[in-house]
Design brief:
It is a single chain. An eight-stranded mixed beta sheet has the order 2-1-4-3-5-6-7-8, with helices on both faces. Helix content is 44%, strand content 12%. The protein is built from twelve helices and eight strands. With 379 residues, the protein is an alpha/beta fold. Helix 1 runs antiparallel to helix 8.
Amino acid sequence: MGGELAELGKVLGEEAAAGVGGIAAIHDAIAGRVFARLGGGAAPVRFGHDAIAGAVYASVAGSAAVAGRLAGAALPERTLSTGRRGAIGLGVLTGLRGDHLEGSALHAPMAFRRDGRVLRVPEDVPHARGRLVIFLHGLFETEHAWTAAGEGYAPRLERALGVTALHVRYNSGRHISTNGRDLARLLDETVAAWPVPVRGIALVGHSMGGLVARSACHRGGAFAAHVTHVISLGTPHAGAPLAQGVHHATHLLGRLPETRPFAGLLRRRSAGIRDLRSAALVDADWDGHDPDALKAVACAEVPLLPGATHCFVAATITRDRDHPVGRLVGDWLVLAPSAIGRGRIPAGLGTVLHVGAAHHLALLDHPAVGAKLREWLAS
């Protein structure tokens, strides 16, 4: 297995080659329609056209793949995942194709991170406290998302409440249930190795991170007995409309030869993106099912963790959550009913906060959310 830059060059080259193949398919579909109208007399011309076009596209695609490998191999070895910019770029890549990157240098196993580097427990936690607050980022994100606008919630909670805050990085392109299983294992290991008795664990997830937290709690483990709070910020508990729209667009685009390559491109989306369509939390939601089937398989009803306080934060771009625009677009990515689990979580089982005039990413560091986190976790 090569280094991160070499692997990145290989992946980008392969994606470029796939893009060229898609353009070739569109060209072929359009040309086929034209030659079909010209009739059998155009057969010799079509034969020559197809041979030349096929050779050209194959050459360009092959060159793109080779160029990516050569570029990655020629660059000096450098670790991208520990730097802020490199980590953010890899976060986007893993969100798109992360399930295909397992086993490569670009795959980030689930781990606590500080300043981009893997945090060892307990060696790298010299001032451990009994209460832990675990932050889980969303799709396309890394732990750096929490501090994009400032110091973030973690240090403020540590100062105000005397807790130890930890940020998790994970491959958001994998299945939510797979990441939930890894989170449960990581938390079990952390509880076992923690240098002081654990008196409470709060899980705070943004977007997909809230689903990963729920999946881990459903799987259970020694850590589950210590969980006091599960807090989700803009989490699509009932599914994300954008993921649903992409799924249906794939079927529509697949109906015509000229648009079918675009459908093929969309089908390359990661398992993590697919899971957001219906908020799939357990393996049974996807294992053995056709991921491209138009009709969604009913997802398992996953109960909330007993004994823990569950809190839901929903945002709308309008100040009034009942404003028609706010009801239509939510925070641009997640609708407010989905963020509070309407239709998937029984009403009255959690505490809800609505944040008005805010978009999806604003929830990563918002004054109203920060104040509410302090209030919830202090109780």
